[in-house]
Amino acid sequence: MSKRDEKIEAMIAEAKKLNLPISDELISKVAIGLGPVLYNKDTATVACGQPKELETVKNNFLKKKLGLTNDDAELDSAIKEVCEQLGSSNRSKYRVHFYALLAMKFKKESVYA
What we know:
Layout: H1 3-17, H2 24-34, H3 41-44, H4 51-65, H5 72-86, H6 95-105
Helix pairs in contact: 1-2, 2-6, 4-5, 5-6
């Protein structure tokens, strides 16, 4: 099993543990789309307590990757909602799950087709 496959398996297992409603297929596609980001502890997770990081998620993922043109307040609200969904006590909010949940929220899973 490749290192990427191992990471994907771990992300699928973690999603099941957290009872996240993300399909294994979407987790796999988001993980593949993230590329090397998966292998660095700092970049593999999203720090909900860091405004600069959340701004990056909004600009680089929601606006650029998903092509959303919603107003910033709506996008910020969605990011906050995902932070809460992943749990305030959960210190490892994996970017794979974070992005998959945002893609699902805005019905943009097709970006990973």
